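Here is one chain, start to finish.
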Amino acid sequence: MALSARQLNRATLDRQLLLRRAALPAAEAVRTLAALQAQEPASPYLALWNRLADFDPAELTAAFANREVVKATLMRVTLHAVHASDYPYFHAAMLPALRAPRLSDKRFTVSGLSTLEADALLPDLADFTRSQPRTNADVEAMLAGRLGGHREGLWWALRTYAALHHAPTGGPWSFQKSPSYLAAPGSPPPSPSAGEGVQRLILRYLAAFGPALPADIAQFTLLKRTVVREALTSLGSRVTGVAGPGGSTLYDIPGGEYPAGDTPAPPRLLPMWDSTLLAYDDRSRILPPEYRATVIRRNGDVLPALLVDGYVAGVWRLVDEGIEATAFHQLSREQWDGLATEAATLRGFLADRDPAVYRYYHHWWRKGLPGADVRIVGG
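Its structure:
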């Protein structure tokens, strides 16, 4: 029997630990979830707060500090927090997508260097960042010293595809806006082959977001669809086919679970750039099409979202009085009560760490949002 669209929604919520909060260590949760979007330093913390029972943010801070969880440029050429054991594979998988576009971009070619000359600097970069964190200015100065002068665009390219982790710089969310870098252990080069990396990445993706189409995997990763299809074929019995809506054939890990479509889904207040909203080519699995342009802005910002009955129903922001929830359609009193309970807990979680979280993005609210109902909850 084919899975329904609602079963796919519940499968996503189940694997993303959004049907019930799990009792997992922070690092193991990151591994289970495959990758947490980390463009905003607060987002991995809020992602785990939504997913883990009695989540202690100090635990994730410690995992970043001891590099059990690492932050790096990976899928979709954006920052993600991933388990350290997955990083070499994910980086190997993504390296072609990270490297070639940068080295063919005019922002690099103005440097006057060839791709071979840029690659030849990777060992020097790894040595320079191996023992202590280095800032952008530190690396620029090192490269200028190696080349006898500054080369415009060189570091812009290298910092995207070199095997580098962002080093924790303190603050409430471990990282601040101005990054520092550390060489990934064992670099260069990444030990897995590109093929091994793609296979590992796909298996992690399916375990965390499946079942899914090749187009979904390509969307989440930025891998070419031909690469994804070839890897799925090479994985053989490590993946299985699942009948989906409309006669589609989806891929999954063997033994994947599919909760019933009427499984209760509790309310959640998802962080900015939550991975569930970016994991599929067809995002209607969790984000209704009529709300997509409001939640995912043209410049790529993904607003903090209200999850009600498993689907995005609005957005939220922290204000002085509490959490302002903008619902895009009418919600029941029970649904508002559930959101209020979550909001009160979230406000307490943020109180001593960052009472102004995501305040920079309030301009989207000032420009106007389509809201059927706007309320202060958790005040």
